[in-house]
């Protein structure tokens, strides 16, 4: 752990994300199929840096909102959001899709689109709520899991979490079978106390968004208000797994005996917070590790000396927001808005999402 | 695919693609986070959108989607459409699998590569050669999550007696290379305890004994290995075996300089309670934690011993997690009262 905590390079991180929103080099073409998630990391960073109300022009925010709404698409599998325009053409209506479409909306993109719009304080008057509920219904499989798209695609704890987060924002759970989904979550538990992305898989830590399956599992259970479903011994075993996976550097590992990665500071740190055990870890090592992952020209990397990206930048900042340093440390630059660990957004944004996305609107 | 070298890299310049109308990506609003595509990528995806619009599923679609995948292996629409085309053409899938052998190693960390492979093997229903292929991939990246998940899926999905036959030897080989490979330990748990009872393994107490012997030997060689301790805890929890039954094995690992039982027996390994190796770094924090759990479970006066062990972790052997060990002390005491 560094003796002196380096300051949070707020402008550098905001600029790193603003630059990505302006455009990305060809080498980042692999982000194209998940662009909405990338937009969310960038907007989430700007939200945590306090840039949304003051630092961004209204006209710019307006054009960002328009772009996100342009990805809402309706079809026989309900209404959701696409990752971006990668399959859009001028020859057909871009806001619809059909059953054998290569351009269907996607679960994780829908969750990140809704949160992104909430960050931008959209009024959600354009949201097709009944269509969204149908989308959730169409994605759920017999084993309780959710496919990423209404007609297939991968199904793991990430999509379960996103489906539950959407239900929570809607304040409506009529589109999903909660009990079956909880049974699927339970089937992903491993002997270590963590969770695998799918049944039989190792407790992890997969490097994706939303990442840590333990986070996806624990957050889903609590989003559904079913925290009591977790027995005391299961809760303790999960807690132990989370805490044992913190390295003396302050960073967290995604899996037993692997190296630390800044994104797990959030996935593990938020899980500990949801399990109401924040007092069992120290804030300073968590923040020190993140401070050491800052890239000198802005952005935060997975580990010290690596190259930054919006994914690690946002999740590192979100983790820091969950573990505020005591005032006595005088680390004023690290003062961040309070974060809602269940929805993974600032508390203000989460409140906005629940108020304006809710079905009673 | 064979004479690709002789052709222009651009589909727009290839005569055999003349009949396809390329469809550029269209944005009705100002783009957000636009990617500055290379001309080659833009050209290929323009033709891909054109093909999808026409609904064409022909051999040239395989060439086009392979081209896109090589430029962007995460392009899941290209993967999806490629699979649909393979199904529509009804071509033998062995050739596709050989191509995937190359792409899987190249794009090991891309989910789509593994998802596509699953779909193919469900069609060919020939899982046996896959085990060797997976083993090869794990030579490249011994902890790749997708690769291990694929192996677990393959075994569980086909659930063929012959497939399972050498899994324990396989795990053993992986752990010989790296005893801290948690993916291998997890796989062992999956094979032994999570995937049904196979022939020769009906006597579960015998199986448990075998696994205890195995993990104890691994711990004795490298005690500071949380993967092995977690495996030990896992099989005890799973079989509802009290931790206290392991107390005599764990005890020497809790001491800085344990007294070796008897010099004359130095060369004979005690299979029940193997002693820490000569160069082991002791005491081992995971052993102290385990021993504290033993004493907590016994309750009564043993709680005092548990508290001392947790205190030693908090103050000395794992001071980084001080708050957690102090929490364990508080919890145990509050339960006792």
Automatic annotation (TrEMBL), chain A:
Pfam families with a match to the protein in the record: Prenyltrans
Keywords, comma-separated and alphabetical: Metal-binding, Prenyltransferase, Repeat, Transferase, Zinc
GO cellular component: CAAX-protein geranylgeranyltransferase complex
Cofactor needs: Zn(2+)
Signal sequence, start to end: none
Domain Prenyltransferase alpha-alpha toroid residue range list: 8-342
GO terms assigned for molecular function: CAAX-protein geranylgeranyltransferase activity; metal ion binding
Protein family according to the UniProt entry: Belongs to the protein prenyltransferase subunit beta family.
Protein name: Prenyltransferase alpha-alpha toroid domain-containing protein
Organism: Pisolithus microcarpus 441
TrEMBL record, chain B:
GO molecular function: CAAX-protein geranylgeranyltransferase activity; protein farnesyltransferase activity
Domain of life of the organism encoding this protein: Eukaryota
GO cellular component, one term: CAAX-protein geranylgeranyltransferase complex
Homology family: Belongs to the protein prenyltransferase subunit alpha family.
The protein, known as: Protein farnesyltransferase/geranylgeranyltransferase type-1 subunit alpha
Cofactor(s) demanded: Mg(2+)
Pfam family, one: PPTA
Enzyme Commission (EC) number: 2.5.1.58, 2.5.1.59
Key words of the record: Magnesium, Prenyltransferase, Repeat, Transferase
Residue spans crossing the bilayer: none
